[in-house]
Amino acid sequence: MSGRPEHQAPPEIFYGEDEARKYTRNTRMMEIQLVMSERAVELLCLPENQPCHIIDLGCGSGLSGETLTEQGHVWTGVDISSAMLGVAKEREVEGDLLLGDLGQGLPFRAGAFDGAISISALQWLCNADQKSHNPAKRLYTFFSSLYGCLSRGSRAVFQFYPENSSQVELITSQAMKAGFTGGLVVDYPNSTKAKKFFLCLMTGGQQPLPTALGVDSREDAPNCVTFSQK
Amino acid sequence: MKLLTHNILTSKCLKGVTVGYPLGIVAKEVKVNEVEFNPEFISRMIQKVDWPALCKAAENLGHLDNLPPAVVDDYENNEEFLKKAHHFLMEIEVINGDLICPETGRKFPVTDGIPNMLANEDEV
């Protein structure tokens, strides 16, 4: 299936001025992003009624950041597209913005954040956009720096669009190598349209994964991932 | 870039950098905003903040006035202290300038409030 954005160009090229503007004018797409952001924050399992310091990874034009602000949190966003960050600035989002490449590692002090969210960004890290890029190495550099800048016991939740099961394997293996525990939560696993993947990573040692939405009530319905080979 | 963000930023993703903290600031444009005061958030952030680095940053910006030189005891219940901390962490913003790696001197430009932390391929 052609048409996956990350096969067309590196993210900072794909999300140039035109696309960046389109992204924040498409109301249906904004609605989807909003719902996914709210779900991601829910999966973060932050302490109730406590304003937290969150990092938004691949923050783009600030759509997901606005959900964080709405819920009373203070956030910082990192993105590789200056066009998207420009749109975020125009929209006057509350969070501080940084221009950066997740695959180069996160430039933050130990324990700086109480949590991390990422909406529709992680799949971009699986591409080798330059000859020198080694996706596995970049993923490991990213995850180990993320592990370091999260305070103990905090979580990172990534909504993303895996291309296939080996991509999921690549991502989760590098995350585990970096010290995270956790796994994939698949909401609405039986619906092609509604199915959403959330990688839930934890720093505090193995804990039960949150329950997925829309799973069958059959006794033996799996709450873990099964992939159709497409 | 607020001073809270500067307080947690490092250049340690660069090859050959050990600590990379704190980053020096040379600011060409600084803005002071009004941000809603959230005492609970500030109280929790003070545990993470490197206070000497905050003082150094405020000094670099020429905005040192009024910043307490150290965290006071029982700060959680000291509204005046929390308000001052809030002002420096959340209301002072670097709009244009450079952040400087303390080990290599490498500059990270700040443009329109956004630090550019992108490293060249041969730097990581």
Give a structural overview.
The complex is a heterodimer of chains A (230) and B (124). Chain A is α/β, with parallel strands linked by helices and 230 residues long. Chain A has a single domain, classed as Vaccinia Virus protein VP39 (Rossmann fold). In chain A, 32% of the residues lie in helices and 20% in strands. A seven-stranded mixed beta sheet of chain A has the order 3-2-1-4-5-7-6, with helices on both faces. The termini of chain A are close together. Chain B is α+β, with helices and mostly antiparallel strands and 124 residues long. Chain B has a single domain (3-11, 19-115), classed as Single Sheet (N-terminal domain of TfIIb). Chain B is built from four helices and four strands, in the order αβαααβββ. A four-stranded antiparallel beta sheet of chain B has the order 1-2-3-4, covered by helices on one side. In chain B, β2 (92-100) and β3 (107-111) form a beta hairpin. The mean pLDDT of chain B is 96. At the A-B interface, β2, α5, β3 and α6 of A face α1, α2 and β4 of B.
Helix/strand-derived class of chain B?
alpha+beta
Q: Write down the secondary-structure element order of chain B.
A: HEHHHEEE
Distance between the termini of chain B: 23 Å
Largest sheet, spatial ordering of strands of chain A = 3-2-1-4-5-7-6
- Tell me which protein chains meet in the greatest interface and how many residues each side has: A-B, 31 and 31 residues
Runs of chain B with pLDDT <50, length 5+? Answer: none
Helix content of chain B: 25-40%
Please tell me the total number of domains of chain A.
1
CATH class identity of chain A:
Alpha Beta
Q: On the 0-100 scale, what is the average pLDDT of chain A?
A: 89
- Tell me the helix content of chain A: 25-40%
Overall geometry of chain A: globular
Helix/sheet category of chain A: alpha/beta
The radius of gyration computed from the alpha-carbon positions of chain A, rounded to a whole number of angstroms, is 17 Å
Strand order of the largest sheet of chain B: 1-2-3-4
CATH-derived architecture of chain A: 3-Layer(aba) Sandwich
Rounded Rg of chain B: 15 Å
At CATH level 3, the topology of chain A is: Rossmann fold
Total DSSP E strands of chain B: 4
CATH hierarchy: architecture of chain B: Single Sheet
Family (chain B): Belongs to the TRM112 family.
Subcellular location (chain B): Cytoplasm, Perinuclear region; Nucleus, Nucleoplasm
Main location (chain B): cytoplasm
Protein name (chain B): Multifunctional methyltransferase subunit TRM112-like protein
